[in-house]
Amino acid sequence: MRVELVGVSHIFNQGTPVEKAALSDVNLKIEEGECVLIGGCTGSGKSTLLQIMASLLEPTSGYVLYDGERKKGYEVRRKLGVAFQYPEDQFFAETVYEEVSFAVRNFYPGEDPTPFVKRALEFVGLDYEEYKDRSPFFLSGGEKRRVAIASVIVHDPEVLLLDEPFVGLDLEGRHDLVEIIKRGKEKGKTIVVVSHNLEVIFSIVDRVIFLEKGRVVFDGGKGEFLMRYKEYLTSKLSLMRKLLLRGQDPFTLDERTILERLCDICE
């Protein structure tokens, strides 16, 4: 499914003293089968953009087209798979089976969820018989993220929208999640990944979109992005080196803190 944003702007708390413009006149077209990375510093509007794409937030102005048509609510959401930061924090069911099958029971109430759940767990590398009766709350961090992704893709959505999917994962967990995203890409899914961990996902995306203060400041190929934003990337490497020299491990330090320090350097 093709997703297009036309003149999209969004203002939080409009008309109040704490009014804040999150997006300003964003025009984007995500083609069917594309794997797109959306990057930017904290507060640049990445997550707001994803929520509008997911039909979970109504833009203040502008609109979204899905395959060229303006649609809302149920008819859109059944074609989307959306995972926000720490999706495992949204767990509510007592077993993995109940958790993963929720979307099937919601969107296809007459269907037996079992085949859907088996396929979804297999897709994320979890054995159905081993995990179906386990509590999602007592799994390891990496297993929880896999179950969360399985619950997002179980109803076979055409579009996957992933907001900071690598947050909180160790190196092995990040690698495993990249492989899962690769499999989705190979199946022809349209995939949009919001992440400030550009280096983790960069190798498999087709296109990079970069936001600053709610505006699209770059939309193009990976090679062009590397040339244009080499200062951003070099600054990130330089900061990580400084942290290491100070005895701090940038791979375990809070990622938001790293990003904020990096943005201070770039501004």
Strand percentage: 15-25%
Looking at the structure, what is the overall shape?
Answer: globular
Class per helix and strand makeup:
alpha/beta
Radius of gyration (Å): 19 Å
The CATH superfamily label of the largest domain reads P-loop containing nucleotide triphosphate hydrolases
Order of helices and strands: EEEHEHEHHHHEHEHEEHHH
Number of domains: 2
What is the spatial order of strands in the main beta sheet? Answer: 5-6-7-3-8-9
- CATH level 1 name of the largest domain: Alpha Beta
Please tell me the overall pLDDT: 87
Note the main sheet: 6 strands, mixed
Task: Count the beta strands.
Answer: 9
Structure in words:
The chain is α/β, with parallel strands linked by helices. It has two domains: 3-229, P-loop containing nucleotide triphosphate hydrolases (Rossmann fold); 233-266. It is 40% helix and 22% strand. The chain contains eleven helices and nine strands. It has helices spanning 46-53, 74-77, 96-107, 113-123, 128-131, 141-153, 171-186, 198-201, 222-228, 230-245, 255-266; strands at 3-12, 20-30, 35-40, 61-66, 80-83, 159-163, 190-194, 207-212, 215-220. It has a six-stranded mixed β-sheet with strand order 5-6-7-3-8-9, sandwiched between helices. It has a three-stranded antiparallel β-sheet with strand order 2-1-4, with helices on one face. α3 (96-107) packs parallel to α6 (141-153), α4 crosses α6 (141-153) and α10 (230-245) packs across α11 (255-266). The chain starts with a strand and ends with a helix. The model has no long low-confidence stretch (mean pLDDT 87).
